Amino acid sequence: MNENTNKPLGFGEILDQTFRIIKTRFKTLFMITFLIMVPVLAIQALILSLSGRSFFTSVESGQNILDQLISGADAVSTTTIQEDLLTILANFFLIIAMPLIAGAIIWTVKVTRESETIPVTKDMIKRALSRYWPMFWSTLLWCLILVGLLVPVFMVIGFSAISFVLNPIFGAILMFLLSIGAFIGIGLLMTRWSLYLPVVLFEQAAPGLSKSWQLTKRQTWKFFGLIIILSIITGIVTAILQLPLIFLGNSVLFHLLNNIISLITSIVLFVGYAVMYFDSTTRQEATDLKEMISEYQVTDPS
């Protein structure tokens, strides 16, 4: 798949290339996620078992499907503090694995775009592993920046809730406008820094925020829209696949399958994210070339 990798892509073309890559390289993408997640899921199963959860949900005799659904949903929603803390600890290992999964998928997209060669799963993981720690610390910094931006926003929205008590209509409008403004403002700002991961991976420039800011220039709204569209698609597919898991209740198997489904569907986001990065580098190279030609024409003695 190297027919359209040397020209800038439009909004729809990025989506089209994203799903074509997923279709042609799904086995490799799935195996990357699976191999990295095997030890993580084993650790998660051990930690969740310590909370007293059963591996399978026991179904009482005589229960119909509706009763099982209600009891399963009730078990998921009503948890103890100990169970919640151990769940957070188990998900922490999932966070640790995410940069490696993303890096290996980005490498797979790069190989797929540049040649017809089928990427080797272990090779993609090894390439990402060599830059794991810079990617991890850069991701941690990006998340801290996001949290730092969200805290004051939530405080302002929280204080504005007081006006809702005094004047419900005005308060509701104010909270809605503040929420939309914060979503768009923070979303666009974080989009400018969003391409840090492939920058760290390929250009070895950690944390890669300044380079990402340069790559997303004049592309912010497009990338922001693409991230929203891909997130909606991923969220819908994830919700549909996770819905039957409610029958498992608050069991270990419920949490493991829940994480597996989330990671598999997140492949859509990671592949689209990688295509956006390569599109931005193509545009930058084209811009740099135009600037070189323009400078040459100005300095040409003839």
TrEMBL record:
This is Integral membrane protein. Keywords: Membrane, Transmembrane, Transmembrane helix. PANTHER family: EXPRESSED PROTEIN-RELATED (PTHR33133:SF1), OS08G0107100 PROTEIN-RELATED (PTHR33133). The lineage of its organism: Bacteria, Bacillati, Bacillota, Bacilli, Bacillales. Signal peptide: none annotated. It comes from Gracilibacillus boraciitolerans JCM 21714. The chain crosses the membrane at residues 29-50, 88-111, 132-157, 169-189, 223-248, 260-278. Coiled coil: none annotated.
